[in-house]
């Protein structure tokens, strides 16, 4: 057996304290050199060009003449790439995004000659418990990572990593991907001996794997000569071959199930989830929008006969995946880099929202009920009763809403004249290649905001008509009451701004809590004598009450310090102004809390705290395709500093959409914003709204001693100053049933969407499109019962549809039902066959290929 394997490589951050353009320009130089050297020399038998194809995609955009040469090197194994498109984070990126990242990366790598069968993430900030599931589903042999491991989790550095579903992968924990980054040109063997000693102490077994290379480093052309002086049996090899040899001689591997989120041996940056909350919120909303609205909507339209815009959707995903890379989604970057990241979000939002508009416009135009009819879309595969907010144009000031001839209950929120669209569309009658529907008969038009309550058919749309009425629907909703209530909650606001929950609820109160943050863009860090501010002055309180909902809104002014220095001196020299709106809907057992704060101070953190009557020692949160239970007692790690940990163990945790207390009858909170929470005092859930810190990297923090993370300390220009942060929380009493929690989260975060098409929008402002379609007024593509929906999309390599479902339970299997006739069961790679049954293991997935008929 070989003693040592040397992996010649570069780890190429696409952006960080530098922009992606700077990275790309310098990559052209380095990659030219790598390709030239490997094409003309055999002393370096193989070179790992990181594990992501996006850097090759950038390279070939400007070096297309080198494509054949590069393909030859990859085909021969002299250059190794993939399987990722980008080096993704794994803790706060959705399961669908991780699958698309691998799908795109593996497809690109295959087209170039092949990919390594390794879940290669050497620098990502922690590992999700569900990575073995994803790697198994995508046909990868190994998991390979550096950060997050701790001795109390598992002492071995090579082990069987098993997901809750039982799917396993052989895992290798890396000491450092730059352990051999700077070997001396002349070495008597002592340098390599020192490195091997480090790996022995770390717990690695033979063959010892030494990485030559590091961040943005060129190929070390004399590495073969350097290692000749070692007394060890040493060779340059590929990582996959090296792991094959490691595990071929490992018959005593330990088993481990769980995530890796501890900073014992390397920094994990466990509070990076709330850095630049304004950008994180954009990411999280767009990620859901793409996979839970745009793709299902596109699937619906495809089944109706429209084109599935696969290329546009893939472009959106690729932009999102660029922003999912560990530094990019961390937002631990220069302001200039973060501006580029924000531009990608804006482009995704622009493409995807216009794609949705074009689809719903054509469907609406093809439903010929009446000129002002509109549709409501449900992109979840089950029927549900919903309150739907609709923005409509109507020729009637007084009107009623009908569906299938039946009156539909609604509230008219406001109405006003809007002549612009009418005047422009009348002028352009006939441009849409159809005879006018009678639009020119109307002399007035109104824009109305309404709230409908109705049952919506699964995975489809239904159509509503606007009919003239003699009854004025507009009501005065203002109330002099100081409270709001429904069948489940009664709520009032104290003079200090805290929200009090009365009645039969496990929720005591909800309040905002502002405190110090001495950290940087990587980490929150606590101070020795903090000042917590959870009270303020209430102004402009308003109460509205209708038959469908009740709402209380107010402005909260909190006196806070401008910075850390003033906080330590207890100088409250600034006003932090928040706008809060609480809504209760009739027959809905949840509290909707909308939070808006315009930040104007630094070195602080703001959170919404849900204070409950429950005492627990563990929390519940969702993760990719499942649920995770975490301990809340971190006092056992109080000696972390003496034990030499790189980072303080803390209960600041990631989530995908919700967190709850682990109790039989519990309280759950769903957030459409930052994916970060913490359990306080065993009975409170604190949801982070934002952090505001003026440094990219900062040395010697209380919670992270030593050097500054990142290259050096950089003033960030107070990026969050004068930035409004808006988040909506959905808080409820609920049974400790993981299915119900996931179902609740899916429904409140994926509300039914209304859309009005018609000739009224046929004008230059909205584009004029020909009316070439004829669709039924109501349409449902499919229905599922008994599983949680993840995605519905067109297959990567053909035109069949792919439906993905999952089981949120950790301890029991589920069986689901569906009304789909022709189907195949495949794995997430969409080609490998899976068991042909409606059975899903705990925290497992089922991918169904719906055959075209």
From TrEMBL:
GO terms for molecular function: alpha-mannosidase activity; carbohydrate binding; mannosylglycerate hydrolase activity; metal ion binding. Keywords: Glycosidase, Hydrolase, Metal-binding. SUPFAM superfamilies: Families 57/38 glycoside transferase middle domain, Galactose mutarotase-like, Glycoside hydrolase/deacetylase. It holds the Pfam family Glyco_hydro_38C. It comes from the Bacteria. Its EC number is 3.2.1.170. Residues 267-345 form the Glycoside hydrolase family 38 central domain. GO terms for biological process: mannose metabolic process; oligosaccharide catabolic process. PANTHER family: ALPHA-MANNOSIDASE 2C1, MANNOSYLGLYCERATE HYDROLASE. Belongs to the glycosyl hydrolase 38 family. This is Mannosylglycerate hydrolase. It comes from Anaerococcus octavius.
